[in-house]
Write the structure tokens for this entry.
Amino acid sequence: MIRDTETLQILLDSLRQFVGEVLIPRENEVADTDAIPQDIVEHMQAMGLFGLTLPEEFGGLGVTMEEEVNIAFELGRTSPAFRSYIGTNNGIGSIGILLDGTAEQKQHYLPKLASGELLSSFCLTEPDAGSDAASLKTSAVRDGDSYILNGTKRFITNAPHAGIYTVMARTSTEIKGAGGISAFIVERGTPGVSLGKPDHKMGHKGAHTCDVIFENARVPASQLIGGVEGVGFKTAMKVLDKGRLHIAALSVGAAERMLDDALRYALERKQFGKPIAEFQLIQAMLADSKAEIYASRCMVLDAARKRDDGHNVSTEASCAKMFSTEMCGRVADRCVQIHGGAGYVSEYAIERFYRDVRLFRIYEGTTQIQQIVIARNMIRDAQG
Ligand code: COS
């Protein structure tokens, strides 16, 4: 749902300008230094980008899902590290508090997240619990007015910068699986909370992940999200339904950028006496990419509108994430191919994008997890 087409268009135009004039020219710097420059962080803060999805009452822009995916189409056109920096506050790090938090928790944390004063991280994955998220082992044992947390969370985006962590931990050893999991807001600086070494990743330079380690970390019971035990896994799944749609939209933006770059290259690069864009085998790669991006764009928009209409879009979000991220991988591969040898050297952005977009098929649920979610929902619906 788009609330006001004109207002949205102004926002999208200013974002496109910001991406084109400020972010794209700094991509190499971010890749080389493995950091988002402070002036860009402040620029993103001034533009209100940390609170895009948070309601206006908490200082955010309160965008709808359809508006959000349109924004993600634009942000996807540059290095994912920029989006990643604002991504957790708009998505996995804040949405659990927004959807299931108490009034006090929302009032206390969401304004700081919306302004970018505070960064948040989402702590679900563990060394032995990735796709099988319900098998997580981090424990939270009630002790008076507190819970004592023990365990390790892995690959946590923005953990080195975060002021709060939304942590899924097991409050019940008797209830196996999902029903024994609760969600907590843990503040940085809590005694017993420490960070592991930075992960050295294939791509996404400038976006930082590491372990978050809990060793007898005492967390006040008031930090239990929603004040209810045993529903933390559901909170995480609802957060991911939304996050998956966002990643699908980012994949569309990234694929559009790569294809634009490849088309420009194909028009400039001459072989056999003419621009390679005039060769039909190159045209096939351009055309297949264009059509697949278009299909993804339609799919993402449709799923976003359904979510705004109040439908459960677990299936659609997984379809969009699976199709769009796989599409993005195919487009990346073709665009390297169109660049030929130039696509394998870092002078051209496609070499970096090829590595960056590989993650889209993995995080917030692998393609294989999306297949499982889709098929399970189909079977459940068929059986009534
Ligand atoms: N919204 C709300 N509730 C949901 C839900 C959703 N999208 N998906 C599942 N649930 C609920 C189920 O209804 C079930 O509740 P009941 O026991 O009351 O019926 C509960 O959560 C457990 O669900 P399920 O039985 O489907 O859990 P499984 O352990 O079988 O696993 C998958 C579910 C595999 C889908 C889940 O573990 C998953 O998404 N894994 C990937 C994790 C991931 O994306 N990690 C990325 C890192 S985070 S960036």
